[in-house]
């Protein structure tokens, strides 16, 4: 998650908290309705007749009225009684005859809504704390969801003997050299190792399974075709190529100057940005067949993601 998306996420959470506080203020119970004594209807009316109650607030629900009265002699003390809705008109008239100030209000939400809104500050606080905890762990909400992405890695290796008079093709690019690989196809060790790494990461076998050297149609074939086919298999299985890291081992020729073209050719075959492909070259310090210039090899690690 970059800094821009992080800022947007934090702004979103602050907006949710602000909205929650506004709803809490709107729907929270009136403070005048707290701290009251529950009394019977007769007791309530007796206090009204005795002049002990001067202010009454009537809260209308679907089937009843809640009457909340303030003690005229003790401002910090009040009384509460519940009436059937049908009795409300006559009670209201009687209260006004006794000089009681009557205010009628409608109940603005059901009990479940009040419960939800009253608990909203706590829910928002818990949610925001979980969000911060997830961010501190370097994750995101998306990775906590079902169907989150997973990463798989594959390793590829290939080696070919070199013979004089054959073209040397590495990474889809023909290089000026007096020797080239011996192989059923064009012998591109980098493309072959990369293909194996991709197939292995996806659990789809290896290059020999899909392009056997016993099949004449692959005789002298351009190995970039193998990568294009591998890419199609990955797409069908919902895999995405995240990164490729490769090393080619040969005494000669120097490969570094040709890496930009190789990356472009490989990226085009795989349908990815060349930024996802990293190439390196090593010699074998004169050791064994590679060191004597008799062979060329490649190692590749490929990383895939899937959802």
Describe the secondary-structure layout.
Elements: H1 3-27, E1 36-38, H2 41-49, E2 53-60, E3 64-71, E4 78-84, H3 88-97, E5 101-106, H4 111-136, H5 141-144, E6 150-164, E7 168-170, E8 173-175, E9 179-181, H6 189-202, H7 207-210, H8 224-236, E10 239-249, H9 259-270, E11 277-282, H10 288-291, E12 295-306
Helix pairs in contact: 1-4, 6-8, 8-9
Q: What descriptors fit this protein?
A:
307 residues; alpha/beta; Signal recognition particle alu RNA binding heterodimer, srp9/1; 60s Ribosomal Protein L30, Chain: A; 3 domains; five-stranded mixed beta sheet; 10 helices; rod-shaped
Task: Briefly say what this structure is.
Helix content is 39%, strand content 28%. The chain contains 10 helices and 12 strands.
- From the spread of the alpha carbons, the general shape counts as rod-shaped
Could you state the order of secondary-structure elements as H and E? HEHEEEHEHHEEEEHHHEHEHE
Architecture of the largest domain, CATH level 2? Answer: 2-Layer Sandwich
How far the N terminus sits from the C terminus, by CA atoms, comes to 17 Å
Radius of gyration: 39 Å
Q: What strand line-up does the widest sheet have?
A: 1-4-3-2-5
Residue windows where pLDDT falls under 50 for at least 5 positions? 140-146
Number of helices: 10
Query: Helix content range of the residues, please?
Result: 25-40%
CATH class of the largest domain: Alpha Beta
Strand content: 25-35%
Care to count the β-strands? 12
* CATH superfamily (homologous) name of the largest domain: 2-C-methyl-D-erythritol 2,4-cyclodiphosphate synthase
- Mean model confidence by pLDDT: 81
CATH topology of the largest domain: 60s Ribosomal Protein L30, Chain: A
Largest sheet: 5 strands, mixed
**Helix-and-strand structural type:** alpha/beta
Q: What's the domain count?
A: 3
């Amino acid at each position: 998650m970059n800094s821009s998306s992080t800022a947007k996420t934090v702004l979103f959470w602050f907006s949710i908290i602000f909205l929650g506080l506004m709803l809490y203020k709107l729907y929270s119970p009136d403070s005048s309705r707290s701290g009251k004594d529950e009394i019977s209807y007769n007791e309530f009316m007796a206090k009204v007749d005795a002049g002990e109650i001067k202010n009454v607030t009537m809260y209308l629900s679907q089937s009843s009225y809640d009457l909340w009265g303030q003690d005229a002699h003790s401002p910090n003390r009040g009384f509460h009684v519940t009436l059937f809705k049908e009795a409300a008109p006559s009670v209201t008239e009687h209260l006004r005859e006794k000089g009681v100030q009557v205010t009628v209000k409608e109940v603005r939400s059901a009990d479940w809504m009040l419960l939800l809104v009253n608990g909203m500050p706590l829910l928002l606080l818990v949610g925001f704390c979980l969000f911060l905890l997830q961010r501190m762990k370097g994750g995101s909400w998306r990775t906590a969801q079902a169907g989150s992405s997973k990463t798989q890695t594959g390793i590829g290796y290939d080696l070919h003997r070199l013979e004089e008079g054959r073209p040397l093709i590495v990474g889809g690019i023909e290089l000026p050299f007096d020797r080239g690989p011996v192989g059923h196809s064009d012998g591109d060790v980098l493309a072959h190792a990369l293909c194996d790494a991709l197939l292995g990461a996806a659990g789809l076998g290896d290059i020999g399974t899909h392009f056997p050297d016993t099949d004449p149609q692959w005789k002298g074939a351009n190995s970039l075709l193998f990568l294009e086919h591998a890419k199609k298999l990955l797409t069908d299985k919902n895999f995405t190529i995240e990164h490729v890291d490769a090393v080619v081992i040969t005494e000669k020729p120097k490969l570094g100057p040709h890496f930009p073209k190789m990356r472009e050719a490989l990226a085009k075959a795989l349908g990815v940005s060349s930024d996802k492909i990293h190439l390196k070259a090593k010699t074998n310090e004169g050791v064994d067949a590679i060191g004597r210039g008799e062979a060329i090899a490649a190692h590749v690690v490929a990383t895939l993601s899937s959802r």
